[in-house]
Amino acid sequence: MGASATSAAAPRYASVDALRGLTVAAMLLVNNPGDWNHVYAPLLHAHWHGCTPTDLIFPMFLFIVGVSIALALNPRVERGDARPALARGVFARAARIFGLGLLLHVCAWWAFDLEHYRVMGVLQRIGLCFGAAGLCALWLPARAQWALLAALLLGYGLLLAAGGSYEPYANIASRFDSQLLGVHVYQLEPGSGRGHDPEGLLSTLGALATALLGLRAGDWLRRGRVPALWIAGAVCMALGYALSYAQPFNKNLWTPSYVLWTGGIACWILAVFHRAIDQRGWPPLGRAFGVNAIAAYAGSAFLLYALAAAGWLEPLYRHAFADWMTPRFGPTLPSLAYALVFVALWWVVVRALDTRRIYFKI
């Protein structure tokens, strides 16, 4: 789900593949506990305001999307490749990612017999951010990208403030999505009918800012300007922390403070991975997930929905984990064990695909 397929000739950084892969593995871990009622706190999103380790995962992935776009597209722009042709490729890939997200939600709607169909989601947001950031890489110089990033942070922050509330369902992002998408959002408030979607349309403005920060970080990486990652990371975290007193960290709203805080952490993690893997030759743990991110993310979702539709999901967890582990260790450890086995299963799958050089791209 990075940008590597945009250019077959683009150089690869093992650090970026590894970081993408570990992020996808973390997605699978937190999205597939055995029992949602028994999950260790660091593996849960903040209920509303706040930022847990789990809240770092999705912004890290969008940051890597931006990094990958810079590595794939910037060299082609610099050597004079036709931008309209590149733009068509960006549009087509963004549409395929968005469409795959819609298909996954059709399967979820059917497998879990949901009351309504959800339009937006993780892949839909990735598709939108990939498309917008890709066009920025093609048509906007570095200064204009920085200006757009600043405008997104300032404009979206003012929009949230003007909405008059940061609370669930009452904030302007939730109200906007409810008006536009109706019942096709993630959550509907009982009684009032108000809706909210953590991957809604308006809050995608904040998510795009994360991808643009990754776009700039990727350009620094390919130019060897690694110290800029450390400086930018420190500045972003400091600004994000200070801003959180006015607008709290909030993944659901993707607030500007959340963009800066998580983006700063992502800059530092990228710098560490580059130093350890690309420069010192450490093994790129997670690479197999990273080069087959679509196979791992979408494939694991299809497996989950198939098990649910067949009625096997709950019995599988109960007989293989809960029945014998809960009396000995309590209910939370078997829930984690199930998630770890789920990730391990998909590691075996993507490792086998990587060994055979089979890579699923969209």
Question: What report would you give on this structure?
Answer:
This protein has 362 residues and is mainly α. 67% of the residues lie in helices and 1% in strands. It is built from 13 helices and two strands; from the N terminus they run H-H-H-H-H-H-E-E-H-H-H-H-H-H-H. It has a two-stranded antiparallel ribbon with strand order 1-2. Strand 1 (187-188) and strand 2 (195-196) form a beta hairpin. The chain is globular, with a radius of gyration of 20 Å. Mean pLDDT is 95; it is low at 2-9.
Summarize the structure in short.
By secondary structure, the chain is mainly α. Helix content is 67%, strand content 1%.
Features:
13 helices; globular; mainly alpha; disordered N terminus; 362 residues; two-stranded antiparallel sheet
Q: Give the count of helical stretches.
A: 13
| Termini Cα gap | 8 Å
Percent strand: under 5%
User: Spatial order of the strands in the main sheet?
Assistant: 1-2
Overall shape: it is globular
Look at the structure and give the mean pLDDT: 95
Report the strand count: 2
Oligomeric state of the chains in view: single chain
Q: By helix and strand content, what is the structural category?
A: mainly alpha
Major pleated sheet: 2 strands, antiparallel
Radius of gyration: 20 Å
Count up the domains: 1
- Element order, helices and strands? HHHHHHEEHHHHHHH
User: Which segments are poorly predicted (pLDDT under 50) over 5 or more consecutive residues?
Assistant: 2-9
What portion of residues is helical?
Answer: 55-70%
